[in-house]
């Protein structure tokens, strides 16, 4: 499992990273934790001639907690799990991160890499749909923000330009109850189906709900219809089933080694129902 | 061929210098160039954890780190934890509780368990299972590995108390 040769760069500021990306164009790739990219390079499904390591950019690390939560792209999944402030402000982040891969992978795998990668199997993109996050991209023309819900176009295709670096993700402090529920074949596996749910309760009824699904289409799926099916209800069995039916209209799973389409739809329904019940119990 | 780079690593407290292509994997540099063969290669696809080493105070899979990324890193392998004439408590407990059969996964298990107990000296059984979930074993069924780690935690805590 030997990747093709590449030239290795470890710049220590963002300007240098962008200059390298401009110089080498599609011959260059940035590497964060490497836990999606290196496996692809071993299989020679990726063969960048220039590998630009972001580990020297300490500015891209860190978690800021306020009314808006901001997470630097190079923050690892393990750091998400260990952060007390984040556990209080947005507990769904750690609940999801604990279900990604395994401890060794989470020690190197980053939030930014998980989001920028564009693999439909990654868990953070779906979660970012649920939280209505914004992604900060910095390129030769400056800084721009893209809504998570506008970021993913197809498997491994995002609106990020080749010369742009994802520097941070931010989202408003989530309200209400939460759940990240994931069905996988074994620990450390990508999702057969996963659901991210936030529910706000007022006077015994759902006043707002946000629902997103992972690995059930070639992009993460934000299901506005599923959220709408819950709003105004007391979140009983009927409302849950209405939300599941609405969600099933928004996903488009493909048959693969995790099962045929019918099975995936079944699992998606079970997982979403569980996530809604758990989120409601915490709302 | 890309140029070789001059790689500096500290492994088990000892400074090493070697030449490596950036694309070489850390596990290959450790095993083939430095002769540190404790960490094994099980899958080479980031799944089994046999190649686990401690890098910068964190458990990582050395088959999924390029040599170039490890430039300047401090690394601990199973060789740095104990020696045949002075086993680490974890190694003693793996022996006592039959935490191994063929032994192929054991260096990775012990190196990972060592870091787990540094981070969390008194884990519950569930925390041990969660913390060890990146290491696969084809032989033991895990029960005795978990037992060995919990027993080692107790002993290490008792030793710490006695020293205080
Ligand atoms: C055994 C195993 C199991 C796994 N299981 C799961 C799982 O269950 N769920 C899950 O979500 N993931 C899983 N992963 C993937 C893991 O979470 C990766 O770490 C993650 O997908 C990518 O993060 P990274 O930091 O490693 O990115 P890298 O691999 O370094 O990069 C991935 C891609 O994103 C690009 N990129 C990275 N950072 C940036 C940036 N800041 N700006 C622009 N582009 C960037 C890179 O160029 C590359 O194309 C698993 C991986 C392994 C090895
Ligand atoms: S050899 Fe590295 S995880 Fe299996
Ligand atoms: S003892 Fe044989 S693989 Fe674990």
Automatic annotation (TrEMBL), chain A:
Range of residues in the leader sequence: none
Superkingdom of origin organism: Bacteria
SUPFAM superfamilies given in the database record: CO dehydrogenase flavoprotein C-terminal domain-like (SSF55447), FAD-binding/transporter-associated domain-like (SSF56176)
Keyword entries, A-Z: FAD, Flavoprotein, Oxidoreductase
Regions annotated as coiled coil: none
Record InterPro entries: CO_DH_flav_C, CO_DH_flav_C_dom_sf, Diverse_Substr_Oxidored, FAD-bd_PCMH, FAD-bd_PCMH-like_sf, FAD-bd_PCMH_sub1, FAD-bd_PCMH_sub2, Mopterin_DH_FAD-bd
Stretches assigned to the FAD-binding PCMH-type domain: 1-176
Protein's UniProt name: Carbon-monoxide dehydrogenase medium subunit
From TrEMBL, chain B:
Domain 2Fe-2S ferredoxin-type intervals: 5-81
Any Pfam family hit: Fer2
InterPro entries: 2Fe-2S-bd, 2Fe-2S-bd_dom_sf, 2Fe-2S_ferredoxin-like_sf, 2Fe-2S_ferredoxin-type, Beta-grasp_dom_sf, Diverse_Oxidoreductases
Superkingdom assignment: Bacteria
CDD domains: fer2
SUPFAM superfamilies in alphabetical order: 2Fe-2S ferredoxin-like (SSF54292), CO dehydrogenase ISP C-domain like (SSF47741)
Alphabetical keyword list: 2Fe-2S, Iron, Iron-sulfur, Metal-binding, Oxidoreductase
Phosphoprotein listed as a keyword: no
Identification of the protein by name: Carbon-monoxide dehydrogenase small subunit
Organism: Rhodovulum iodosum
């Amino acid at each position: 499992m030997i990747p093709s040769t590449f030239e290795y760069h470890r710049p220590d500021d963002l300007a240098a990273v962008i200059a390298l990306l401009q110089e080498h164009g599609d011959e260059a790739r940035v590497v964060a934790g490497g836990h999606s990219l290196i496996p692809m390079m071993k299989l020679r499904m990726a063969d960048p001639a220039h590998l630009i390591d972001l580990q020297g950019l300490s500015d891209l690390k860190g978690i800021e907690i306020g009314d808006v939560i901001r997470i630097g792209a190079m923050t690892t999944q393990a750091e998400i799990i260990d952060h007390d402030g984040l556990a209080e402000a947005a507990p769904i982040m750690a609940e999801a991160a604990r279900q990604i891969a395994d401890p060794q992978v989470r020690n190197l795998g980053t939030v930014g890499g998980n989001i920028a990668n564009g693999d439909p199997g990654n868990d953070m993109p779906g979660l970012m749909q649920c939280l209505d996050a914004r992604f900060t991209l910095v390129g030769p023309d400056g800084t721009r923000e893209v809504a998570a819900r506008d970021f993913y176009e197809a498997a491994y295709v995002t609106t990020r330009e080749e010369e742009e670096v994802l520097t941070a993700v931010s989202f408003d402090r989530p309200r209400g109850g939460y759940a990240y529920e994931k069905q996988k074949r074994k620990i450390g596996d990508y999702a057969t189906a996963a659901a991210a749910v936030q529910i706000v309760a007022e006077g015994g009824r759902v006043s707002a709900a946000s629902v997103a699904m992972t690995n059930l289409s070639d992009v993460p799926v934000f299901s506005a219809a599923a959220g709408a099916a819950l709003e105004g209800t007391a979140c009983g069995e009927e409302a849950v089933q209405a939300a599941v039916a609405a969600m099933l209209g928004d996903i488009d799973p493909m048959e693969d080694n995790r099962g045929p389409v019918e099975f995936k739809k079944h699992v998606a329904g079970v997982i979403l129902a569980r996530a809604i019940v758990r989120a409601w119990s915490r709302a | 061929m890309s140029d070789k780079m001059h790689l500096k690593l500290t492994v088990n407290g000892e400074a090493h210098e070697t030449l490596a292509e950036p694309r070489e994997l850390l596990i290959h540099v450790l095993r083939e160039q430095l002769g540190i063969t404790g960490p094994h290669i099980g899958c080479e696809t980031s799944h089994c954890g046999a190649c686990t080493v401690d890098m910068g105070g964190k458990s990582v899979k050395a088959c999924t780190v390029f040599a170039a990324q490890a430039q300047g890193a401090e690394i601990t392998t199973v060789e740095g934890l104990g020696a045949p004439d002075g086993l680490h408590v974890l190694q003693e407990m793996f022996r006592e509780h039959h935490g191994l059969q063929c032994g192929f996964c054991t260096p990775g298990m012990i190196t990972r368990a060592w870091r787990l107990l540094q981070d969390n000296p008194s884990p519950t059984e569930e925390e041990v299972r969660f913390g060890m979930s990146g290491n696969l074993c084809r032989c033991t069924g895990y029960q005795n590995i978990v037992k060995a780690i919990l027993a080692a935690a107790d002993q290490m805590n008792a030793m710490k108390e006695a020293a205080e």
